[in-house]
Amino acid sequence: MVHDLPASRSVSRVLVAAFVLASGAGASAHRYDELLQATRIGMESDRVRLEMSLTPGIAVAPAAIRAIDIDGDGVFSSVERRAYANAVLKNLSVRVDEGPALQLALADSNFPAPGTMLTGDVPISVTLEAELPRLDRGDHHLRFRNDNATAGSVYLANALVPDTTRIAITGQDRDADQRELTIAFTVSEAGPSLAELGWIAAAGMLLLLPLHRRVRMVTLGAR
Amino acid sequence: MKASRHIAVGMLLALAVAATMGLAHLQTVRAQSRTSAETSAEATKRIVSAAHALLATLDDAGRAKVQFPFEGPQKARWSNLPSGIFQREGLRIADLTSTQRDAVRTLLTTALSRQGYEKAEAIMQGDEMLRQGAPANGPGGGRRGGRPGGPGGGVNFGKDQYFLAFLGTPSTTQPWMLQFGGHHLAINLTMGGSQASMTPSLPAAQPATYTIEGRTVRPLGAENDKAFALINALDNAQRSQAILPYRVADLVLGPGQDGRTIQPEGIRASALTASQQAMLLELAREWAGIMHDAFATARMAEIKANLPNTYFAWSGPTTNGSAAYFRVQGPTVVIEYAPQGGVDHIHTIYRDPTNDYGARFASK
User: Fold this and answer.
1) In terms of CB atoms within 10 Å, which of A3, A4, A116, B21 comes out highest?
2) Which H/E stretch holds residue A221?
3) Would the ipTM clear 0.85, i.e. be above it?
């Protein structure tokens, strides 16, 4: 899903121009020439979720807007938004226990009106998800790497406390600029993935169906 | 035989004294908790009364502007951004008469502690300095001020560009919320009977140091100084645990990050000495103590009770006067302090993962 943030496009450019002038180009007032990429990583029993906020500073916001608004009509169309989110996605990687890169998919995104981004403080939000491989009981690690817009970016990367008690995070290891985060975690018991749960449920239904029929026949015969 | 009788009598006497002392202590504790409860109830009554006094100064249009449903989008409508860029709703100070402004001031001084109100005032005065373009002390100061805001809108700085809203009807029994904020300030005070929560809230500052009437003002100076004092009170082994080996460029759980809890990092308070733990508590008090003392006391007791599982993390230089990020995170508290590129522009956030917007007592 791709959403607009509830910001008024009609006034945004005027407001932002005023803001930038008012803050004396805001060199130290708000983020200036960096793109802040903040990623929060949530792990569930069967999937990993990346919640990203991308906030271009005042000096780089015009270029960021041009990079998204390809046709330059002052509006981020759904095609343009999806293209930007997918471009971000392609520069990320998530691996578990040195396995292959997980298949990330776009789950949600929120784009502000283009003009509001010129303040250097308004984020684009992109949420990505990937299915986790089956994890046996014991120690594991998940390695996240962000190679998106490496020139002029600053990064935040944090593990969220898992919603499930099955997974417990035991450590976080980052490089100095937080482009790479390795999350060490333990799995308390091996559990089926969501897909496997679906198959188990389907198999159960198939097994129970003849039994149900037999009980019904016996009941009808008794009458 | 005689000696053993004396010992037995002595033991009985000792037991009686211990029991009396224990009973007295129990009575004191009960009296203290009763006083505390009464104080909270009284505080609630005074705050609700001040809220209704403000409502009484408004006409129908004003009441419609200030009043919102308790559940709804207004709850999370707060930001560090200036008004105009961020669209706030509620009663704008600029639109009030002097009587109404007095009523707002009375409400805030009633709802907040003395130091909390002074902090909020200093933050708003800092924004007024931005509006006026007055030179500020410290690196990064002295930028031009913003335009005076009028009813037509615009990017607005200054003391008049703060908004007040009530979510729910101010009541001594039912949950409601007092929301007050503008550029670099968001106070979300949820009340439910004699309980109160002031999370999430965002006290920030720009300029972080300024001079007014010959007086130097640092809205978040105590937060900064107490944190530097704590990091410098740690020994090398403790520092190696507290200091994160990477740069933290901004708040992790700032506006828009409701309901998220990050994995804690840094040094656990159980690895601190008693005096270091006391310093950590005093640091947390800078945020917890913004609300009325009656509620802040209970809040501090909660933070103290969870202290062994509370973490202190640091990123950046350890010499006071430098720009450094720090975080205090425990089961019921998250505090982040994030300089924005320099020491003269600070963002902070204050949360309770278990009780933001009074979730523990206000959820229906």
Assistant:
1) A116
2) helix A194-222
3) no
